[in-house]
Specification:
Chain A: Residues 28-307 form the ABC transporter substrate-binding protein PnrA-like domain. The complex is a heterodimer of chains A (356) and B (307). With 356 residues, chain A is α/β, with parallel strands linked by helices. Chain A has eleven helices and 14 strands. Chain A has helices spanning 2-18, 42-57, 73-84, 98-107, 132-146, 161-177, 194-206, 220-228, 256-268, 295-310, 337-341; strands spanning 27-32, 61-66, 89-92, 112-116, 125-130, 151-156, 182-187, 211-214, 231-236, 247-253, 275-278, 285-287, 320-321, 327-329. Classes of the chains: A alpha/beta (356), B mainly alpha (307).
Chain lengths: 356, 307
Amino acid sequence: MKRILTAATAVIALAVGIGSANAADKLKACWMYVGPHNDGGYSEGHDVGRQMVEKQLGDKVETSYVESIAEGPDAERALERLARSGCEIIFSTSFGFMDPTIKVAAKFPKVKFEHATGFKSSENVGTYNARFYEGRYIAGQIAAKQSKAGVAGYIVSFPIPEVVMGINSFMLGAQSINPDFKLKIVWVNSWFDPAKEADAAKALFDQGADIITQHTDSPAPLQIAQERGLHGFGQAHNMYKFAPKAQYTAIVDTWGPYYVKRVQAALDGTWKAEQIWDGLKDGIMEMADYTNLPDDVVASAKDTQAKIEAGTLHPFKGPIFKQDGTEVIGEGKTLDDGTLLSMNWYVKGIDDKLPQ
Amino acid sequence: MTTLMLEGILLTIITAATPLLFASIGELVTERSGVLNLGVEGMMAMGAVVGFAVAHSTGNIALGVVGAIVAGMAMAALFGVVTLIFVANQVASGLALTLFGLGLSGLIGDAFVGVPGAGLARVSIPGLSDLPVVGLLFRLDPLTYLAVAITIAVSWFLFRMRGGLILRAVGDSHVSAHALGYSVIRVRFMAVLFGGACAGLAGAYLSLVYTPQWTQAMTAGRGWIALALVVFATWLPGRVVIGALLFGGVSILQLHAQALGVGVPSQFLSALPYLTTIVVLVIISRNRALVRANTPAALGQSFVPDR
């Protein structure tokens, strides 16, 4: 059913969204989203970035987007339509758009493609991503300092490397403060299902966690935290207004500056396909204001953030051990990007069994 | 396991079951009249968005609930006109209603994305709510009480009242009911409207009680689960309650099992609510004669009165 739904939306979106292109001399930049442009989460983050491009380069650039495109064959059709309709640079913003992007890009060598969070590239396909794990490490440290029970709950979507990397980074951050810190993990098998996320939060709190964090998109878990007088972290967006008494901070996606830079490069003729994995220091993401925290915890969080930005602290610096105790990397060395991007194991101290 | 934790779990289960109960009991009445409305998900989404929008704009949650009911009924009326008066195919029209509802709700709700809602407070019934263990049953939100009341009323109406008999007759054999002088179209239209009102309530429960916020597609497939529950419950209100509680219960308990770290793959645990509900309802529906007696024989068939 969902396929039919998304296919139908895709058709409508294409018919409505692309029809309006006419301005001939402007560069046409296009975006493709996996969810609605106003989902209040991941896709909206990209759309805010698009609006920034529109605002800053609006006299030279025309932007458009297609939304709610299913990952898979629909994505290929939608991309092809975008390329045919005269888009000169196309940002495909979801992990599952990876293969369709590579395929369509081969047919349109003159069009520039950028794919978010993937690992395949070509002559005219660049990739970009943010090092969200940097923020997770800071969140882990805050959790370990603030939790009275020494237990945090973690609501997660699917066992892909990006998610596993986040869990490990959070745990490593927490362990750097409290080596006995415990993490309870619940998989809800969805990126976005507010009610289910709320249920997961309740279950975790009922079982003794007093801090919650998530790799799903809705603010529902934070609302539950607020209701219970407990705390948590926002995801992808600053969720402060949903839970002004509960949010410690949030890892906020800020794709805007990156998009402006890349579209500008396309305008200047200096664009080439690159693999970009930026972090806190590059402004592709940021930490929301630290709130509901004592001053010393805020100070140490800011200190950690500064060290990460300066490159003197890396969350995945050795020694790091897997759950069974085998050493992944020794003292003084840091995991390389390839290992991070294919991570399918938990660090020592996590009780959960990773779904395969 | 402490009493407090047990109470927490029970409360969560009831919360998870309530929207399913609303939507299923409404669809049950619709189907008992012989109409298959697959648009539950769309009507729910409309109820959720209108409920949230009205509650947020007026600051009055009760008005929001009324708005959700009206929105659900408006969608149902559209379906009724198309399928009952213009005799369009019910399955296709129902699917279209879902698509339409999900899309339109997104459009209406554009301004309300990312706006925190107020949420409906729980109501304690004095005296009863202080009882040990069962006391928590008297400390729920008003909409849950309403869901229970509606279910009892529907059961009473269907099997104890003349109107219910007529409705079931229309659903079993519209030709005979017509021959006896009952207005098949009118009865069905009212049943469809009731289904819409209940789906609207289910949506309101999601956007005003469960998670006080609006986002597109927040119903996340619950309308489809409600539809399935009606079939597995063999069109009996009591079994719909069992099905909703069972589905809600297992989906909550599997989250607890995960948090406890039992070594079962989470994908399997996530599938458990569906599996358990199907298995249990199939087992209690072993009696073929009973199933046949309760299945609306004219379900999904259009009726054109001969002039």
